[in-house]
Design brief:
Layout: H1 2-20, E1 22-30, E2 41-44, E3 50-52, E4 58-63, E5 69-73, E6 80-83, E7 88-92, E8 102-103, E9 111-112, E10 119-123, H2 125-131, H3 137-140, E11 149-152, E12 155-157, E13 170-174, E14 177-178, E15 198-205, H4 209-212, E16 219-225, E17 233-241, E18 245-256, E19 260-271, E20 281-295, E21 298-312, E22 317-318, H5 319-323, E23 335-352, E24 355-371, E25 377-378, E26 391-413, E27 420-443, E28 449-480, E29 483-500, E30 513-529, E31 534-545, H6 549-553, E32 564-577, E33 582-594, E34 597-601, E35 607-611, E36 614-629, E37 632-647, E38 649-650, E39 653-654, E40 666-674, E41 682-691, E42 694-695, E43 703-704, E44 707-718, E45 721-728, E46 736-742, E47 745-750, E48 755-765
Length: 774
Amino acid sequence: MKLLIIVALSVFLQVKVTHAQTIITGVVSDKNTGEALPFTQIKNVSSDKTAETDLQGRFSIEATEGKDSLIIYQSSYDQLVVLATNGAQIRLNSSIISLNGVIVSADREYQKRSTAPISISTISARTIEDNKPTTIDQVLNQKPGINMVDLGNEQHTMSIRTPINYNATFLYLEDGVPIRSSGIFNHNSLLEMNMANVNNIEIIRGPASSFYGSEAIGGAINFITKKPSVTPTFGVSMQANTIGYKRTDFYVSNTFGKKFGVRFAGYYANKKVGPVAFTDFNKLALSLDASYYINKKNDLTLSTTIVNYNSDMSGTLDSIKFYRKSYESNQTFTYRKVQAFRTKLAYTHEWNAKSKTTLTAYYRNNSVKQNPSYYISNDYNPYSKIGDPNLAHGQVNNNAFQSYGLIAQHKQDFGFLNSQLIVGATIDYSPNSYYASYIRIHRTNAGIYDSFASTDSSLANYQANLLNVAGYAQYKIEPVKNLIISAALRFDDFNYDFKNNLDSNAYSAILNGKNVFMRVTPKIGITYDFKKNRGIYANYSQGFVPPQVTTLYVGYKVPSLKPIYYSSYEVGGWYVLAKGRIKLEASLYRMDGLNEILNVLQADGTTQSQNAGKTTHQGVEYGITAAPHRDLKIVISGTNSIHKFLSYTESGIDYSHKRMALAPNWIANVVVTYKPHYLKGFRISAEWRHVGPYFMDNQNTQKYTGYDIFNIRTGYEIKGFEVWVNIINVTNKLYSTVTQATAYGQQYILGSPINVNIGIGYKFQQNKNKKHEK
């Protein structure tokens, strides 16, 4: 009898517990941005049952409401314990050290960093928020291997595993889609970004051609935009600095009915009366993002950006003006005007847990109008004493294109050795028009270009229809536990259909016709994860860049430039020690180039693009992130590199085995951040940036000493309000971001002198479940 009573009681209790267990649902989002966090792990402490959030940050797990505790874990965020509550909206804080974060840029799919055999760095939303950068280089340059060069007014160029250059050796992406078409490269492409809508940034160093195609040689930078927030959010901020810069940012975002999300964000910036004369500018950038969660298997996302940019172009400074700090400009009328519109619609269908297809259609409409200072050349030659000293030559031009494109990708996971296949195809059709007309410029006796006269002489007038069709595939397999081998292959077919509207006697006199460039680019990689946040990787890859349209057709009688080829070898790894308080990362690379394009100085002082034979680029990149105290974070990054010609002769001069110009041998960056726990919301950081010496010319006859810059940033947040003060170039160091030697002397681009940036902002985010957090 007693046994029957015990059995009956046990059954009753089990039934009661079973009935108490229910399916708890919730949403996990970023505490700072309100954006949903996919692939977050949920664990019920009582039952050890687990779940994972989907792309909308949603989860469901069996738990007893009001009694069970749930552990919420995301590798890039602080772990959180909450009470099981149906409909919970859980917000996570980004962690001080990201140990094995989720990345998307390696193969256009979410994955852990430990499974990708590449050099990749991530700049988090928290880092961007804390730094309050006025230009993107202020955060990009904190990562190993990156030297983004500030040319003023958000104008820029890049150096990633190459010397500072203005050529198509790196690729800018927005959510995995190039922001410009291949073949119409512009080193100032990030003018077309809306910084107010950037959530985080991922940087791939080394060729990424197997997935992203042409131009992803030195690296690819993927700007991942902010998505609609889970709950209503809005914010506005204003800032200004002591060298004439002002900016206003705003955003508003929400998800309606758990299915339809919208975010609208933008900023307006302008500068007047800067340290260098004739450098005013203004920019308006607006973005609209929308997402529609159809059901668990289907969703749509739409993203649209409009940018309107206008800037004076002051040109470079000579050595006398630079060192005397005499910053008046020789220019009075040169300009750059950019109008950019792009939109994309992505559809994702999950066939099942192991199969997913994504289709992304996009459209671009861009125009860059210029009266460029870098095309101005003097008629008078000081060496031959020939020419008119009051006459100079220049041009006004307009480079415009539209793009219609589609990216299709399918991912299939297999049970066999955890293997995975990704296949994809892209098509991009971009009609491009270019017009340039000659202008006569009056030059005063003091060397000031004070006026110009338009002429009916056309230097270029063409249409070129660009068609790029490509297919790619990648296969991953895990033959031994924790050992992942991947192999990728991409085929590109570029077609340039060129129509010249000028005759055979013109400056650009290439006859109508077609140019076709085809190439297969392979990549193979291997990753071994030792677990406990330790791993190594190695890869071999190739890169391929066809000549850009303007460099191929403008100023020639016959197309003369050849495609560029690169072969890259790399090994690297990561190691976490001191119980997760120190993270080490390093990579060793060699990249050999064939037909690399250089800007060669001509007799009249202008430059022309020419192929350069064989080159090599070698280096080591390293990063250290340490948290010796819960309030203190130290980030150290460095790059030591050698860039030289292996075989190259130009105009009878042999450059073989000489160092390439504009290639610092050591670049380093250190940031120390202090956030006291006893003063929540306060932060202060100090930064040191070092750019080592480099040759100013390819003959290695003149050298720039490099520079060291110190910055201090501080801010305080309380109840949605925020104030900040950033002091850039604290010591008021006189430095040049690019220094070149020409036949007519040295040219300097002034780096920002000391400036104090002061800002104030307010942001609101609805939070319904704060009381449930432990």
